[in-house]
């Protein structure tokens, strides 16, 4: 199974769909897939992810939800109008008397039968309007909390965007790094296989030792193992990129090599970057908004101690049969004031819970600040480490190039064996690949530092 994956992945390094034949895909389907393959540069991959990544789309939907919640909170400031129709049938003297009066049917006969009125029915269609005059400031505080909720949702979207750009970049460079490792492994396998073949011929002729054959067997096995690891790394990085780009099938795209590798370097000191992150990271802004929201919600709960006043108007008619008559319509207008005197300590407990939530949100904000400060410090140190490793890899590559040149001259003069030459060539290839991988690692570390600072809000 691993061998099949390595072969498919090796082919995917140049054309990601060619390995599909290993899994039983016929030539026609492979050709169709080739024509549909998209090749992404880093910028194109980032742009595509910002348009199609599901996490970012979820964040956008949360903003819309927050906007809807604001509309719900603002609805409390508008009149509420409803229509209602009711039917009653009763012989209760008090209710029947009320029906007779409301239906404009009261006369002397009604007084004579007031104790035994019999059954009577009442149809009442009506329209009711209410308007909140005062609710202890609860409606106002809810609307302000909803406005802050929109801000928090916007900052959460910026957080996802910031992390997404960094994740796509790291996956992109991880893919290219795995491709370089694959090339080195394949070059090593080719060189070692050729040398092993020649060494076996010389061993059969009695001109070399068995240990030379066994040594090359071990090195060839190590090279094949490195090829398997590189192939797996290619597939894993492709899967990661497909997930970040929101693609259904990871085989439906390929990655274009970086056109130009620039040497990254910090553009500011750690203290400057920390201050920039602590003032600009969307996570901190979102945490601050959550603190403000919890404070508004506390004021909402405390508003329950204050009186409430509502104005209302009702227009309808009362009659013994369905329908509507302007001669029997009734209008009621009034104002109701209500104040909770004792709620079984319910309001007190709600206020207490809201106070604790304010404390929780403040601690979350402090935790967020501490975490971001640590993230910036870690990213800054990793970039410095990556730059140091890049310098070492560059020096190692130059030394390996010079060593190969000298061994080549020694071989021509008959002073070095072919095994020594192949070892030097393999070492040169590894050093060159390590330099490129170190360059990609440094670029990834630079992106991680930019994400820690909050460059892609």
| CATH topology description of the largest domain | Outer membrane efflux proteins (OEP)
Order of strands, main sheet, comes to 2-3-5-6
User: Order of helices and strands, N to C?
Assistant: HHEHHEHHEHHEHHEEHH
Strand content: 5-15%
Level-2 CATH architecture of the largest domain:
Up-down Bundle
**So what's the oligomer here?**
single chain
- Uncertain runs with pLDDT below 50, 5 residues or more? 1-35
> Can you count the beta strands?
6
- Major sheet size, sense and barrel closure: 4 strands, antiparallel
Overall structural class, as computed from helix and strand content, comes to alpha+beta
CATH superfamily of the largest domain: Outer membrane efflux proteins (OEP)
Portion of residues in helices? 55-70%
Q: What is the CATH class name of the largest domain?
A: Mainly Alpha
Number of domains: 2
**Cα distance spanning the termini:** 43 Å
Number of helices: 12
Based on CA atoms alone, the radius of gyration comes out at 39 Å
Q: Please tell me the overall pLDDT.
A: 85
Principal-axes geometry comes out as elongated
Protein model, in words:
The protein is an alpha+beta fold and 457 residues long. The protein folds into 2 domains: 1-36, no CATH class; 41-78 and 141-303 and 343-453, Outer membrane efflux proteins (OEP). 67% of the residues lie in helices and 11% in strands. It is built from 12 helices and 6 strands. It has helices at residues 2-12, 27-36, 42-52, 54-74, 93-102, 108-112, 138-204, 210-245, 270-280, 282-302, 346-412, 418-453; strands at residues 38-40, 80-90, 120-134, 253-255, 308-317, 329-338. The strands form 2 sheets. A 4-stranded antiparallel beta sheet has the order 2-3-5-6. Helix 3 (42-52) crosses helix 7 (138-204), helix 4 packs antiparallel against helix 7 (138-204) and helix 7 packs antiparallel against helix 12 (418-453). The radius of gyration is 39 Å and the shape is elongated. The two termini are 43 Å apart.
